[in-house]
Write a structure and sequence with these properties.
single chain; alpha+beta
């Protein structure tokens, strides 16, 4: 029974093919119309180019140079803590969320993009003015313009708290064009950017890579930079107080070269003691500032760019020739459906209505 069903099924397929090929003129009409439609759609579908960059970020771990600094600092009575207690809130797995955030995207609005024809404009202007819109989207755009409210605010004056419709649309378009994939085993980050212009694609991919490194570096060194600024203020204040005390002691010592009064000598000793005290504070602030700079260097992440951005030569979009072939195959399938299942029932229905 099963073999008979398989044979009948094969005979049906062969029979369908023979019946469709028998009406080759109708088949050519379907395929021809589908080919013309495929050519029109293919020519109106803009090409897209994708540039990929690969980044290997430094994986932060416990210990390291700060532990050695902690041991050395403890010898002079200074406690700088340990790096083992520090945990990064931004790790490679959330880099895609960082890139997709409004704040990150808005900072890219003013990036100068050089196009294939050597013209330059901002990324915002490139997205809003250079995007090729296919003809089938014209009715939707026309309808949306009828109900679009006039936006009084200047498009370049971006308020991240309250974006305009156009600015929000640019952010959404950016998210659809950018891709950030993180390998969980190796923490290698692959960033790709798709654009209708190959040069703009490479420029944006390289800019996103650079801005991401700056963002991560700024985050990881924020506390260390605050500490450096704080200890620089203390260092400058201690240095000034020490220099003032030293000058004051020097002037008093010069004035007491020929004076042997006990009161004068006691005053001179007090000034010397005050100078030594301020010098001790100055030394401690110097050590603290050096340790803060070392901590800042320790917290600064190192990135290894495995693959840099290069202008793509070939388009990454679906080939237009295959698109036309696909429409021709669709036309052949529709022709077969029309001949086998639709033509006779429709003719019978029309003949009944005429009667």
């Amino acid at each position: 029974m099963e073999e008979n069903k398989k044979k009948s099924h094969e005979i049906d397929i062969v029979g369908i093919a023979k019946r469709v090929l028998a009406e080759w003129k109708l088949l050519l009409k379907f395929v021809g119309v589908a080919a013309v439609l495929g050519v029109v759609i293919a020519l109106n579908t803009p090409k897209s180019y994708t540039t990929s960059v690969i980044l290997a970020p430094e994986v932060s771990g416990a210990g390291g140079m700060l532990d050695n600094l902690s041991d050395l600092a403890s010898m002079v009575g200074v406690n700088i803590g340990s790096s083992s207690s520090s945990i990064d809130a931004i790790y490679p797995e959330i880099y895609p969320d960082v890139i997709s955030s409004n704040r990150f995207i808005i900072d890219l609005f003013d990036v100068k993009v050089r196009l294939k024809d050597n013209t330059e404009r901002t990324f915002y202007d490139h997205v809003t003015k250079d995007v090729k819109i296919p003809f089938w989207s014209w009715p939707q755009i026309w309808i949306s313009t009828l109900f679009k409210e006039e936006e009084k605010a200047n498009q370049k004056d971006v308020d991240p708290f309250c974006l305009t419709k156009e600015q929000s649309g640019v952010c959404a378009l950016f998210r659809s064009r950018v891709s950030c994939i993180v390998d969980k085993k190796t923490s290698v980050v692959t960033i790709s950017f798709e654009d209708n212009d190959p040069v703009a694609s490479a420029v944006m991919a390289d800019t996103i890579l650079s801005r991401l490194q700056q963002y991560i570096t700024h985050y990881r060194t924020k506390k260390a930079r605050i500490d450096v600024d704080y200890y620089e203020q203390l260092f400058n204040a201690a240095k000034k107080e020490y220099e003032d005390a030293r000058h004051k002691y020097a002037r008093a010592a010069d004035a007491s070269t020929r004076v042997v009064l006990v009161s004068r000598q006691s005053e001179l000793d007090d000034l010397e003691n005050d100078m030594q005290l301020k010098y001790s504070v100055y030394q401690q602030m110097t050590q603290q500032l050096n340790i803060a700079h070392a901590k800042l260097q320790e917290r600064t992440p190192a990135f290894s760019v495995i693959q840099e951005a290069t202008v793509p030569i070939r388009a990454s979009s679906f080939p237009r020739s295959l698109m036309v072939i696909g429409y021709m195959l669709l036309g052949a399938i529709l022709c077969a459906i029309w001949i086998m299942y639709l033509r006779d029932p429709i003719k019978k229905l029309l003949s009944k209505r005429k009667k």
